[in-house]
Amino acid sequence: MTLPRPKPAIPLPIGHKQALVRLLQAGRIADARQQAETLARLHPQDGFCANVLGLAAQMEGDTQRALDHFARAVALAPEVADFGANLGYALNRSLRHQAAEAALRRVLRHHPRHVNARTNLVQALVELKRPEEAVRHALALIRHMGETPEALRVLGVAQAQAGDDRRGRHTLERALAGDPPRFEEYALLARCIENEDGPEAAIRRLRDIVFNHPEAAFAQMELGNRLAQSGDLEAAETAYRAALAANPSLAHAFLGLGRLRPWCANDPLLPALKALARNTGQRPDHRADALFALAKALEDIGDHDAGFEATMQANGLLRGLVNYDCDANIKGMSELPNVKFRPLARQHATAPQAAPRPIFILALPRSGTTLLEHILARHPDVTALGEDDTVHLHAIRAMETGNLATLARAARSHHARMARGRPVVTDKFLENGLCVPALAEALPDARFVYIRKDARAAGYSLLRSPLPPKGHPYTMDQVEVARYVAAHHRLMQVWMGRYADRFTEVVYENLVETPQTQIPALLERLELPPCADCLAPEQGKRPVKTLSLAQVRRGISTRYRDRWQAHAEALAPMCARLAAEGAPVRPR
What we know:
Blueprint (H helix, E strand, L loop, with lengths): L13 H12 L3 H14 L4 H13 L3 H14 L4 H13 L3 H14 L4 H13 L3 H15 L3 H13 L3 H14 L7 H12 L1 H14 L4 H14 L2 H14 L4 H10 L9 H9 L5 H17 L3 H16 L6 H10 L10 H4 L7 E6 L6 H9 L4 E3 L5 H12 L3 H14 L5 E4 L8 H7 L4 E6 L2 H10 L13 H21 L4 E5 H6 L1 H11 L46 H10 L7
Parallel strand pairs: 1-3, 1-4, 2-3, 4-5
Helix pairs in contact: 1-2, 1-3, 2-3, 3-4, 4-5, 5-6, 5-7, 6-7, 7-8, 7-9, 8-9, 9-10, 10-11, 11-12, 12-13, 13-14, 13-15, 14-15, 15-17, 16-17, 17-18, 19-26, 22-23, 22-24, 25-26, 26-29
Organism: Pseudoruegeria aquimaris
Keywords: TPR repeat, Transferase
Protein name: Tetratricopeptide repeat protein
């Protein structure tokens, strides 16, 4: 018996391929999708239609659908480099950087000169905190395509992320010269300039760029960011509005503007913000930023229900981008107190006479750490380091290995270098709360201040804040945020019991209600001389780079204390879980 031979797959005619490409280029996404679906049924073994469907889904902001289509395209035609590069790009956008790296390396194994695959691999390596590898691949990109503005941009980003501020600055300036209005890496360029020459130099360079290129929206936005950090809120608002006049799709400019002051119902930018938040054809994380900005605006004008709806819509978009296991996270936190360390050698156990004494400020994000550090920074004996992760990275390594010696050396050296001759430094990198034993054992003179809010206020602050989903995946669901808030407090209770003589607990609500008694008591507990300036943190001149940059410029106030209460009914799932977990709340 002879079985019938299968019919060979009929390839998609070149004319149909060209027609699909023209539709995408013309922005006719729905038409391209419809035709690609029809052709895919006629040519089910041709990967081109799946690739077009992936591109259409990506342009519509549906990351998961794009991934599914690109994966099918690669499965049907693994030899086509463009399909693999598109899959890697989509994986990067969905924050699955390890999978992106694997997909892109497969492409480059057979097509080492493929520009998009190499570019996307550099991005994946940067996100995976492997900047040295990223630089090597960026240099390979330069060899393949020459010193084009795009290749220089990719190399400059990699160099800056690798900590090479001088080379990163030089390369980014060369990339910028090619097309200032379309250049998007002004934040990295400004960071390199600041690290070399200080924050004022970064502002001067950005002012020079926008003077010559007022249409450079990303430069205007970064200028707004820098001016806001420096405390010049009026000039920052002008810069943000100029950025949005040039490009009304910059969600981060809307976010920045909303931090400076309350929105007014008649603000001429509100219609553009509402339109941006409705636009489903953008990246999910970008639309989430627009929704967070809109939520703030709606709250400011008194539409609390619509504001909360926008907040949770934004969180839903971000939650879809991360694969977060809340049970595993909570379990991991509960096991941290069991970490064991090797005894610290005598030469490391004693602080050098000239070494500054560290104070670590611990808390959940959005719980008042910026205000607390700004208060302490007004003291003449204190240098505030902000959210500096230098010591934290060594502390994490010590928690993993049990070896404290490297942490002790690195922390003493870094603090001495940054203290500017003052005897005390503060470090408010928030994740330090997860490695208190390493810090406490390696730095016997270290003190810890734990500031906490009413758990309901803390949970709502996390839900309404546009925090990076990869770094804070617990903030996008009411029950998950409640579980994390409660688990974090339990962990802090363990540390406070273990290192009771070195810990100070500050309740945010008490601090803002009675600062005249709370602050002197805190200074005494931290063995700092009395200082009246600490009662006026708004007069401090140091740059502030957190989401609270405008709040701390307005002084100590109770105006932000009870915002969660406007949504008490909508927050019922979170509040119920907090109560079940025994999280600390204030009586109403």
